[in-house]
Amino acid sequence: MSSRKTRLAAAILVAGALTVTTACSSGHSNSDGTKAGASKAPVKTTTISVGTADDSKGPAVAEPGAKKGGTVNMIDRDDFSHLDPAQIYMNYNSEVSLLFTRQLTGYKTAPDGSQKLVGDLATDTGTTTDGGKTWKFTLKDGVKWQDGTPITSADVKYSIERTYASFIKSGPTYIQTWLSGADYRTAYEGPYGGKSLDSVQTPDDKTVVITFPEAHTDANFTLAMTGYGIVPKANDTKEEYDKKPFSSGPYQIVEHVTDRSLDLERNPNWDPASDPIRNAYPDKWHMTFGVQAQQSTERFMADNGDDKTAFSFHNQVHTTYIDQVKADEKLKPRTLEGLTPYVDYYYINNTRVKDQKVREALIKAFPHQQTRQLQGGTSYGDYATAYMSPTVLGYESYDPYGILKKPQGDPDAAKQLLTEANAVGTPIVYAYNNTPVQQKVTEAIRDALEKAGFKFVPKPLDSKTYYDAIGLTNNEYDLYWGGWGADWPTGYTSLQPVWDGRAIADGASNYAHLNDPEINSAIDAAVKVADPVEQGKAWAAIDKKLQDKAVSIPDVYQRSLSLYGSGLGGVKFDTLAGLQSPLNIYVK
User: Which residues form a coiled coil (predicted)?
Assistant: First the structure.
């Protein structure tokens, strides 16, 4: 996802863990005084595993010292762009929706930070007996809507069907395309005309059976996305549902003033015994929008009044205050820093820069150290040595171009490559967001590429239409920044949307315009591998092929640095979303 997760039968589901890594501090000071040849500190490993039926039982693991009651405040820059689950793709929309929307599956976090895919509304993570083509889910007893009516399999079926509706434009499309093909809206127009989707069956009120034309071994991860959260037919207000969805979770919306505030109170019909994921400690949540990152940082540092019981989904520590915050011992107990699932790239336009040696020279010359420092130093991210994030199953560090040894760039090696290619003086048109920070970043890139023998041609773009401009297949740029994060922690959503050559289209995610038959075939083969560990190895092999072909420049694994008020406990970092999680928060 831009901005912005496989086990089979039940017996196989518990056989092993998906090994994932979260990076600890790189060991560099925030002044980024990295010496040539310095290496990163070793990564700290944790695991994501697929849980059992027992793991799927509620209640959620209690937060030590937590108590019920009180109001939690949230301050953030922007209102949530969508609350209708079918419209939700962005991470901050998903994170707040955990408070009032449930899915068939979801992620349970243990006290040690490890995470398991578990049944949320379902009794387990689903079963399949045919390699992932047919998935069966059974709903738990006692799950209800906010008005007390039971949640049934018909609600799940209806919720999938309405993702086909013409007004649903912003959510994920994995399940729809897997069921009905790329032109899924032509195949089925949604439930509002009275037609049903035959590929989703409900033999009784508790059972949902989803049948795909082809195997999808990680469909149970896909269904953990908030985009596949449930919506009741009886309370579906279509377009208006986006402003005030009907609750299946521990809280319900009592008031939503667009761009100003969102208020939640307890849903009396939510049963904690059915929910292994959510701890509902506060009585109320009051969320306020329009607070910029600099303001929120200053307010969290001051820690006065209602800000003592405040947190933020989206606002990180403003770059102006990073050094001060990290050096202040009093702030450390309420500072969160962690690795997100997002990787920053500098995409090379492969339709314009066709010579691999020229692309290799761009990678060799790139000044990661200088650009990282301008954007927050080590708190901005760890140097990337793969196209997949360390939070993804199968991740392996590779680094064939020596980024860790010379993060400041190697202009001499780059110029040698250009000389061998008879390409010294090659113009590189660099497109960038026309902001004060990116203007400085652009100058650092200019200096590095010109030293390597390139002719640098900067092209500033309006930040509001930046992705629109670089997303055109016939754009006139050779190099541009972009970020990508996995929708669930396997290699499929890390690599396929970005590097599959059959996905090239205006507005699509293959910003490098790579169409390599070897990569396309390897993607097709990896998708069919049932065992999650072996599939992870297949994605790692694809990652290495991409690096060997010098298709783009991996830059950093994004990190997050944020603060919260001293009156809150249980504030934790969600590595799957890269945000502060509300699930264990309580008022002290």
Answer: none
Tokens (6 digits) for 553? 């420049």
Residue 387 maps to a domain: yes
pLDDT band of 575, cuts 50, 70, 90: confident
Helix (H, G, I), strand (E, B) or coil at 136: strand
Cβ-based neighbours of 205, under 8 Å, separated by 6 or more: 139, 150, 152, 153, 154
Paired with 228 in beta bridges are: none
Strands 579-581 and 572-574: antiparallel
Residue with tokens 């890139």: 445
Token digits of residue 494: 């890390």
Select from 406, 412, 410, 408 the least CA-distant residue to 424.
Answer: 412
Split into its structural domains, the chain has a count of 2
At 460, which amino acid appears?
P
Same-domain pairing of 274 and 363: no
Domain at 545, CATH number: 3.10.105.10
The answer to whether residue 35 is domain-embedded is no
Indicate whether 568 and 549 sit together in one domain.
Answer: no
Which pLDDT band, with edges at 50, 70 and 90, does 147 fall under? very high
Structure confidence by residue, pLDDT tens digits, 520-546: 999 999 988 878 788 899 999 999 999
Quick one: how far is CA 20 from the chain centroid?
15
pTM: 0.82
Give strand pairing partners of 574: 579
Assess whether 400 and 473 both reside in one domain.
yes
User: How high does pLDDT run on average in the chain?
Assistant: 90
pLDDT, tens digit, 9 for 90 and up, residues 77-87: 999 999 999 99
Residue with tokens 């790579």, as numbered in its chain: 514
Query: Looking at the structure, do residues 475 and 571 belong to the same domain, yes or no?
Result: no
List, in sequence order, every beta strand (DSSP E) within 312-379.
Answer: 335-348
| pLDDT tens-place string over residues 230-267 | 999 999 999 999 999 999 999 999 999 999 999 999 99
The closest alpha carbon to 257, from 295, 286, 280, 229, belongs to: 286
Q: Which sign, positive or negative, has the C-alpha torsion 434, 437, 438, 442? A: positive
Q: Which residues contact 236 (CB under 8 A, 6 or more apart)?
A: 158, 162
- Residues 309 and 429: their CA atoms lie apart, in Å, by 48
CA 482/CA 269 separation, integer angstroms: 43
- Whether residue 59 is preceded by a cis peptide bond, meaning omega within 30 degrees of 0, is yes
Residue 398: exposure state from Cβ atoms within 10 A (0-12, 13-18, ≥19): middle
Q: Indicate whether 322 belongs to any domain.
A: no
Same domain, 458 and 546: yes
The least confident of 14-23, 111-120, 506-515 is 14-23
Of 390, 358, 384, 348, the C-alpha closest to 369 is 384
DSSP code for 455: E
3-state secondary structure 192-244: HHCCCCCCEEEEECCEEEEECCCCCCCHHHHCCCHHHCCCCHHHCCHHHHHCC
